[in-house]
Amino acid sequence: MARSNSRGSQEVNAGSMADIAFLLLIFFLVTTTIASDKGILNILPPKQDPNVPPPDIKKNERNIFNVLINANNDLLVEGDYRRSAEGLDQDFKAFIMNFGAPDEEAAALYNSLPASLQAQAQRKADSSDDPGEAVISIKTNRGTSYEVFLEVFDLAKKAYFDIYAERVGLASGEYRTLKGDNEATRAILGKSKEGIPMAISIAEPDKIGGN
Amino acid sequence: MAKFKKKVKTGESIPTSALPDIIFMLLFFFMVTTVLREQDILVDQKIPQATQLQKLQKKTLISYIYIGKPKNTGLYGSEPRVQANDVLIGSPEIVQWVNQERDKLPEADRGFITISMKVDKEVKMGPISDVQTELRNADARRVLYASTGKVN
Fold this sequence. Notes:
Chain A is α/β, with parallel strands linked by helices. Chain A is 40% helix and 13% strand.
């Protein structure tokens, strides 16, 4: 204080400006919540009319990849017991990209795929007929933990996104940021999904282990 | 010792005159990005992690629903509850809430309403399935399972 007086300067003392700004800064740092709108998108099936019986869908068992998660969070993948969901995305991918009994359309689809995906395609007769027919079914109990369900659902999405991304030659992370808000990205999205619909079915949970 | 003292005394100071400007810059950044919480969250929220995250194009289409164990267990019990806006609601009221939220949107966007489900890790599938059944009844079928990025 005495020093500034002795200088006789007319300036406003701005030394505490930083302190004031710091105070405000800390206030906003504490109160801020950077809004997170990220998540995994899912489209629920339409409401069922109670007067109309559910459609009787005839689908070969081999075209459905069953994942059951019970109330103890154990997995049953195509009849085999698993302790954790690790590596499930590779199984999903192999199942989707299986051409067990391709019809003409599926053969055309196979020919349109890039070489890297063609190399992954298998011809197991006991797995799915072709990518258009393949369905991943996830069934839980009411007592299944949401975290485990989301992990499996996440892996199923990953399998599809990996395939889509590879088909159009993008990295998987890049592909997911496409929003389809302009003509070019819409074309890419359309091309990647053509003939390979994302078919993840989430069955109504049954009553075991919940309330 | 004397040598050292001499060296210390050489008048070198970092110029701090730009410090307030830098701090102000930071301050403005946080002021702009901050969203003051409009509502208290009444339920536990430990959001699960996932890898395949997507962002929605339009934020205005999103309505939030929170599911978890109530924080105030003395008042609301320990079973998972659903929070919409700033109250805990029961399953039958979800349809009404969705319709209210939908009415807030411009007419052209009403079909694209997306419900972001912020669900606590500890919740079981039962309550979630009930909520989803109600959302189907309300014809709000776009659901976003809110999750945070997983670091591999």
